[in-house]
Amino acid sequence: MAQKNEQFTPGTLIVAKGSTVAFPNLDRVRHSIYSFSKTARFEIDLYGRDQSRSQQFPIVGSVKLGCNIHDDMRGYIRVTDTPFAAKTDHNGYVDLAGMPTGGGQLTIWHPRLRAPANELTQALVLRTGSQSRKVKVRLR
Questions:
Q1: Four-CA torsion 30, 37, 124, 88, nearest 10 degrees
Q2: Each residue of 21-39: pLDDT tens digit?
Q3: Which of 25, 60, 64, 128 has the fewest Cβ atoms surrounding its Cβ within 10 A?
C-alpha cells in the first residue's frame, strides 16, 4: 500500500489474515503511518522517498490508517479469513468466483457505511447448478 501524491494507494486494500503489507513511500515528502484500530495498533516512524516499511496483520477486521504528518491521508485495510473476499469495481460490482454451494454469509464493509463496525451481513444460499448468482444489496 504505497503513499503517492500524499494518499494511500490503493485507498482500500484487502489482505488475508497473517499477511505482511509493505508501505513504500513514492512521495518526495516523509510519512509516518499509524493505526489505532482494535484490529491493528501500530506506528511506523518517519521514512522518506523510495523507502519502504512493512507491517503484519494477524487479526481479522478493519484497519484505519493515517499519517502523523499529513492529517488528510486516510487508508483502509480489510483483513479477512476467507478466500472469497474482493473489492468492488467503480460501479459497485464484485465477482466471487469459485464459491461452494450451500449456505453462507455475505459481509459488506465500507468505511462510511452506517452500520455497526461499518458492515452489513446477509445470509446467502448458493444452489447446485447455478452458473452465477447476482445479489443486490442496498446500502444506507
A1: -20
A2: 999 999 999 999 999 999 9
A3: 128
Q: In whole angstroms, what is the distance from residue 80 CA to residue 107 CA?
A: 11
CB 38 within 8 A of CB 113: no
pTM exceeds cut of 0.85: yes
Residue 7: its pLDDT value, please? Answer: 97
* pLDDT, averaged across the chain: 91
Please provide the DSSP assignment of 68-87 as one string: SS-TT-EEEEEEESSS----
Both 15 and 73 in one domain: the answer is yes
CB–CB of 15/77 below 8 Å?
Answer: yes
- Domain range for residue 140? 82-140
Is the separation of the CB atoms in 98 and 113 below 8 Å? no
One-letter identity of residue 81? D
- Whether residues 75 and 17 share a domain: the answer is yes
